[in-house]
Amino acid sequence: MSEDNIDRNARFDAIVVGAGFAGLCTLHRFRQMGLSTRIYEMGTDVGGTWYWNRYPGARCDAESLAYSFSFSPELEQEWEWSERYAPQPEILKYAIHVSERFDLRRDIRFNRKVKTAHFNQGMGVWRVTTAAGDSAVAPLLIMATGCLSKPMVPAIQGVDSFAGKRYQASLWPHEPVAFHGERVGIIGTGSSAVQAIPVIASTAEHLTVFQRTPNFSVPAVNGPLDPGFVDAFKENYRDHRDFHKRGLTSGFGDLEIKPRERTPAAMTAAELSDEALAAACEQYWQTGGARFMGVVGDALINKDANQRVAEFIHRKIRATVKDPQTAEDLCPTSHPVGTKRICVDIGYYETFNQLHVRLVNINRSPIERITAKGVQLRGEHVELDTLILATGFDAMTGALNDIDIRGTNGQQLKEKWAEGPRTYLGLMIAGFPNLFTITGPGSPSVLSNMLVSIEQHVDFICSCLQHMSRKGFKQVQTGLDHEDAWVAHVNEVAHATLFPKAGSWYMGANIPGKPRVFMPYAGGVGPYRELCDSVAKDNWRGFVFS
Ligand code: NA7
Predict the structure, then answer these.
(1) Collapsing DSSP states into helix, strand and coil, what is residue 39?
(2) Longest dimension (CA), the chain
């Protein structure tokens, strides 16, 4: 890194933390508004999630044509996605393309881990410092740090003593990793592992999967995109985008499926016979993808409906996996389907029929410790050449709490959030003026198409800044009353669903000691957008300008 590159007491209109999709979108829009903007990014390139998560089989579980920026009609027409679900290298290429196409890179400093962000009340600016030695000030601070960007290393005894090759799925090396002739072990069976396991099994000599909790997984039904389908989609891109933006749930879906039609998706499971529900599930299973949870209207609200959908997946697992004990171990029973993020796989369950792949249920055979040579289970030592941790993230708040963020009166964000995150609309935090979080806790974020949610937040912030500029305001903040009301609303909406019934990372349950609070907003992207629009129309209800 060149010393000249270090920002020393630099001044900008805005500082953005993170050069993933949220940071890139923010920088592009701020440029259009004439704001001088600096991004600090921890990685050596853009892409965020798609920069770090390079594990074998990594791909998006949202469809490519929907999981992309809508702000440039030329970009969306010209960019060509190869598959229904884009693989990680292609999404990273897209992020790099965006950064070059819109000439964003000149305002991004890479290799910069932001250490501190302190608000100076007297000057009305945020001072940001990085581990590389930068220091810069700006009135406006945008946290575009991502929801799944702080890896979780499990506190398993001896985890650092393994003498073979050890990888964290979310910190995968940039060089190719080969498994030929190797005995590989993987801990974790979340989305990352479910994607990686079939790919690793295709070359490893032996693969042992250490599973604590089985997850529900549905087939991706991935494949090359049909050019005719793409052309038709691109002809109607505006309509598709609009449909995604106004969606009642997550911001995906097909235009031709009208949510209010009397298909099973708009009915309750109780209205459907077992045969009718099974037929609907089968249809969704064959179509593929996470939209499976939309098979009936109340799958995520009603316990019985959910159970019937879960049983369909159990039957699929039992029909696929030949060894009965392995099949039983793979059947999730400890949480309602969809309340932990449903996995989208390519041949996951089938992989366990291969003779060199073994599932270890660590509830029956607990991991006692990790040794230099492998994993010591109760009564058995599993020797490994390579150990992979696919153990997830300190989600939603991890990356924010990692930075020493201090608002008015020196209050630290981490302290303020000791009992769980508190925001207004997932966008602002009382006591932290001029700081916006993009897809922050309390917004649809991880329950939504992230690109839809990112663009909506960036649009909202830009409108707010335009309002400030028109009125001559320098500062915006939210108050505790609005924050309290929003947190209560987020909880109320979550508790009307089955989501809180799972010990998920949505609930902070995967991190020892983390408060159990349902963090994302489960009200759906469309209703949330309407709410934000109404806030703006209602003279920016809940925002205080000065
Ligand atoms: P997840 O979904 O949090 O999965 C992590 C997995 O690791 C999960 O199966 C955990 O089991 C397991 N885990 C975590 N700690 C341990 C210990 N100590 N011992 C054994 N197993 C453990 O993370 P992913 O990276 O797979 O996916 C995250 C998101 O990225 C995903 O939802 C997509 O949105 C993309 P547990 O369930 O806690 O028993």
Answers:
(1) strand
(2) 71
- Candidate of 61, 85, 212 to mutate for ligand 1, largest count of ligand atoms within 8 Å of Cβ: 212
65 neighbors 230 (Cβ within 8 angstroms): yes
Three-state secondary-structure class, residue 8: strand
**pLDDT one-digit tens code per residue, 272-326:** 999 999 999 999 999 999 989 999 999 999 999 999 999 999 999 999 999 999 9
R_g of the chain, CA atoms, integer Å: 23
Buried b (16+ CB within 10 A) or exposed e, 85-103: bbbbebbbebbbebbeebe
Number of residues that make up the chain: 546
Q: Which atom of ligand 1 is nearest to the CA of 341?
A: 32
Atom 38 (ligand 1): residue with closest C-alpha?
510
Mutate to test the pocket of ligand 1, among 50, 147, 192 (most ligand atoms within 8 A of CB): 192
- pLDDT digit string (tens) for 384-403? 999 999 999 999 999 999 99
Angstrom distance (rounded) from CA 204 to CA 473:
61
Residue bearing tokens 């989208």: 344
Q: Are 293 and 284 in contact (CB under 8 A)?
A: no
Cα–Cα distance for residue pair 277/445, rounded to 1 Å = 30
- Return the percent helix, strand and coil in the chain, to nearest 5: 35, 20, 45
CATH topology of domain 3-150+394-545: FAD/NAD(P)-binding domain (3.50.50)
Residue nearest to atom 21 of ligand 1 (CA): 188
Distance 169 CA to ligand 1 centre (A): 10
From CA 349, how far away is CA 214, in angstroms rounded? 11
Low-confidence ranges of the chain (pLDDT < 70): 1-4, 253-262
| Angle formed at CA 501 by CA 499 and CA 506, multiple of 5 degrees | 50
- 331 has which bridge partners? none
Q: Ligand 1 centre from 248 Cα, in Å?
A: 28
User: Which amino acid belongs to residue 232?
Assistant: A
Q: Which residue CA neighbors atom 25 of ligand 1 most closely?
A: 392
Q: Determine the distance separating the centroid of ligand 1 and the alpha carbon of 283, expressed in angstroms.
A: 28
Indicate which atom in ligand 1 lies nearest the CA of residue 156. Answer: 18
The secondary structure element, H or E, covering residue 281 is helix 274-287
Q: Which two tokens stand for residue 170?
A: 């979310």
Structure confidence at residue 167 (pLDDT)? 98
Ligand 1: lining residues by beta carbon, under 6 Å = 148, 154, 156, 169, 187-193, 212-213, 341, 390-393, 505, 510
